[in-house]
Structures are given as C-alpha cells and as structure tokens.
Amino acid sequence: MSTIETTQCPLFHVDFLSYRMICTYIGPGTQWIPNFNAERNHLGCGRNNHLVKDFRLVRETENFDVILMKGDMHPNDPNNGCIHKSPEIKNGSRIFVRIDSN
C-alpha cells in the first residue's frame, strides 16, 4: 500500500510488465484511455496532447474499483499495453494498492 501527496506519473504511458493491478482507496483514481482514442506512435513523446485524440474520452477509476491493466510485456499480446497515467493530486493525498506481475 502506498500513500502519495504529489502526482507520480503525469504522462500517459504503458508499463513494461505483464500485468498491473491498482485499487485506489482515497483520492483520485487511475486514468486510462481506450486504444481507439490513442495515437500509440506518440507514446513516450512527453506530451499527452499528442497521444490522446479526445480528452473527453479519458476514463478514471472510482475509489475501490480494481483495475487490471495489461502491460507491454504480456506474452499473448506484446506491445499493446493499457495506456494510463496517475491522476493529478492538488490538495490532499492518494492511498492505493499496486501489484505488478512479470
């Protein structure tokens, strides 16, 4: 379990592992975008506005939702991980559990 008070990963990205599970208990949830809303060739460019086609379609988990995200190292579907980012934390903190699997 982690408690953070600042934004960790402000850029949309994929993780280089098989799976990541996150459940947020307090604070804003993980933000993610479906593949149809992403210009995947802009992953890693350092700008969310080049990657996300329509910011109105960004999704965010609610407290106590469990999100299981496929990573880029998934053996059955490599290089097609879930595009996500940490939410912005302005005033307060975020408490969440993260479990990674390689």
What does this protein look like?
Helix content is 4%, strand content 31%. The protein is mainly β and 102 residues long. The chain has a four-stranded antiparallel β-sheet, with no helix packed on it.
Summarize this structure as a short list of keywords or feature phrases:
102 residues, three-stranded antiparallel β-sheet, 4% helix
* Order of helix and strand elements from N to C terminus: EEEHEEEE
How helix-rich are the residues, as a percent range?
Answer: under 10%
Share of residues in strands: 25-35%
Strand order of the largest sheet: 1-7-2-5
Largest sheet at a glance? 4 strands, antiparallel
- Which structural class best describes the helix and strand composition? mainly beta
Q: How would you sum up the global shape?
A: globular
Distance between the termini: 19 Å
The overall pLDDT, averaged over residues, is 94
What count of helical segments does DSSP give? 1
Q: Indicate the radius of gyration in whole angstroms.
A: 13 Å
Low-pLDDT stretches are none
